[in-house]
Fold each of these.
Amino acid sequence: MKNIIKSLLLIFFLTISCAKDDSVNNGLNNSNYTFKQQVGYSANDILSNNKFTDIYIEVMYVDGFKPSAETLTNLKNFIGSRTYKSNIIIEERLINIVLKPVYSMEDVRSIEDANRSIFSFENQLAISALFLNGKSTSDTDTTTILGTSYRNTSFVIFEETIKTTANNILGSSKITLESTVVLHEFCHLLGLVNLGTNMVVNHEDVSHSAHCTVENCLMYYLIENGKNIGHWVKDTQIPQLDAYCIDDLRANGGK
């Protein structure tokens, strides 16, 4: 009996030790932290280190539409400059899905739910970033959707549309455009503008909610529209956040 008890204790100890050694939470969602709330719900949790000290971004992409390494570096640097996260980890993973020429937001959510493997736990906050072929069902004759934030820790980039748009914009590189859209959508997760992060000074565009009134700001509404983005994204210049947006982030726990 003593030997059996010792064996059980040893198995228990090894199980706990392995769990603590894992740097990320792969597999099923065993966290109580919700990831299906509205955009901006987790703004303070992303910006501050009150609840989570680390951030893990799971980049899922379909074959042929992998984001550039430069864009992911730009995202990592941006997070480091605007949040108090001690560790920023980005993992890229090819996913196998039935490709479609057009995706609805219901399609996007279903793809995330079927493929997401990293969830927030302990001191680590997880973000899901999807890079898809095709385009959005919200595209019109006057609007081309380049990316969308759709949950509190989730955003999608229509990578094929990014490539097509970059080719059509004289002087704008694909990396610059891709980086701009990724940072813009991530800033929506940070609660900008007035989307979970309160405004210090009123600067929300009333005609285009959750966007900034300052035209050269990263959060200007036309950044999301591939039909008109050429005026704001030129050569290697990625638009920056204006002073109003930065003040908002600082007031909500960021830098």
Amino acid sequence: MAANNRLTLAVPRGRILGELTPLLARADVEPEAAFADEDARQLRFATNQPALEIVRVRSFDVATFVAFGAAQLGVAGNDVIMEFDYPELYAPVDLKIGQCRLSVAEPREIGERDDPARWSHIRIATKYPRITRRHFARRGVQAECITLSGAMELAPGLGLCRRIVDLVSSGATLAANDLVEVEEIARISARLIVNRAALKTRPKEMAGWIDRFREAADAA
């Protein structure tokens, strides 16, 4: 099949690859060997499916690649989907991997006596400013967001702010930095996302892959 007729699946680099690889196998997608090497400079990978290739990008970029049609399919956490809120995206399948939560955290000494219901204005460090503002606006709290791309847990200790919004899995990183969760914003898991235009122009192919990934997720 000509390269320009292939569908492209965008997947995130990092920790989720360990959970994603078995799911791909259940969907009968076997990437070339270099895909499993996180240190490889290669970003584009052939698969055993002539009609499908994979690109590996930053987790926050998956939604953008799919929304703008550079990839027709993608795997993204619903944190990324909610943050960008692209109308061009459709998320038909919960893949049931990458499960964690998006939470508000603060220093333990504050959290032990703090009541989030009494907040009226807060300053928060996060890489999710849109989600954070929307969440607090719904209950009349003004959230001043300081946007960071990582190392959120350092912000309270260095005086940048008192609170953070970040992904939490086991809570070990928060505990190591003497932080505690005080409010959960959303439960997070990875979703199959698709480009709406591709779904209209290539309905049979796209529907086939949606069904295949849904079956793979259900078989876990």
Amino acid sequence: MRKSVVVVGMGEMGSVFARGFLRAGHPVFPVVRNMDMASVADEIAEPELVLIAVAEADLHPVLQQVPAAWSDRLVLLQNELLPNDWLQYDLEPTVISVWFEKKKGMDSKVIIPSPVYGKHASGVAQALASIDIATHILQSDEALLFELVLKNVYILTTNIAGLQTGGNVGELWADHRDVANDVAKEVIELQQVLTGQQFDVDALIDGMVKAFNGDLNHQCMGRSAPGRLARALDLAERNGLNLETLKKISAASLA
């Protein structure tokens, strides 16, 4: 029998991965809210991997409590993820940039293949392949960083621009391209400051448009859009950036 997989957080996304690992032959042990990870680690000290599938806002409290026995087995999947999110805890997780969505009562919908990187990348890819979710395995830290920034550009641009335009990503690019470009460039500026790296702006925007084309009907603005905008502006202020387009959208959304 294959080794167990621990899934911390059994929401919509965690449930997708759990099904994939089960199909791939791994027993799955869920860790749900109010369960003590240390107690679980006493029972399952050497799982194949530990998938952290909690929401973005819960990631850091969870990482602060990860048992030492699990520290080299982690897999992260959150949006708005950047290397400092795990480096500050001296962790080297496997990371997947998730490009499929899962909503309650609906099956998973793939937008584009999800890139995955790290020592457990092959296991993650095999599990998702067993439930027909496409991935591709990255070969370097630099490739992972680009993919994480690309996902952030897509998520933040669609959510923030959507506060002004509404609609779906196809309409955003067809009818409000100037807004999308202005927001995307400011998001990229923020990502460069947060990572200390320079990126090919055109390549990131081309990648964003490729994702748009993967699901033109994907709605721009989710429930988390106001929070994403507020968080981006807070990070910009703390890093001395003046993101005029984001400020205007924020002011208009609060009017």
Amino acid sequence: MYDVIIIGGGPAGLTAALYALRAEKSVVVIEKLGLGGQIALSGEVENFPGTMKMSGAEFAENLAAQVDALGGRIEYEEVVEIIDGNPKTVVTDLDRYEGRSVIIATGVKNRRLGAEGEDELIGKGISFCAVCDGSFYKNRIVAVIGGGNTAVEDAIYLSDIAQKVYLIHRRNEFRAENRLVRALKSKSNIELVLETTVEKFVAEEGLKSINLVNVNTGEKRTIDVDGAFVAVGQIPQCEIFRDIITLNEGGYVAADENCRTNLEGVFVAGDCRNKTVRQLTTAVGDGSVAALAAIDYLGG
């Protein structure tokens, strides 16, 4: 039996493991894919306090090494169910684990376009976070794909950094709030490319251009860009817990800043938690808060 079972091996989950292990709790981290989560796909991270520059993969490797050095166990399995009880049981596709507490840190998955070349260029010209990676494109040409609040906010943000911003949207109207659309249209270096979808991302030592197609006429066009930001939504990886944990209408785990869920002894950390800001710093912050809450719970 473990003191803490952590579901998810991203920054939030690994930070939670680090804090719990330093409190001399037994910990197992269960991760279905690879350690580091979405940050592992980032070629460069320059906005983490105290670190000038590192790759996302380096950050993940260092954090995992800390967990390993303290005796944390990491298992690569897919969680399929949490069974409430005393102890709680976490069921995976390969095994069952019993624990006195559970921290859910399953994160989110960025919704992708499915365009040709997209997967190969993630981290090599294609990003999902303008705040994280926008500074790499100072005085260069970028594109943002999407039509909601995030896409419009990203385009506005990037317009103060990049030489030019294309905002590509498949409809002729934005889903974003009116105030954001007004701010968008006031930017002279943003070109709106409406009723258009991405057909292909073209590579040449990184992203070189984007092939576009008009959804009404079928007319094709190619734009040269240095970077592209895909902002068509995120998918929280929490659906399997719906029967036991309260999720909001967006599918995120309902919990406030103390990271406690509706179920006693079960906590949440990272991007899968219902919150406004989803950044590397807030993920590790959640991890520490959730771990300390679990430690307090275990102390009774």
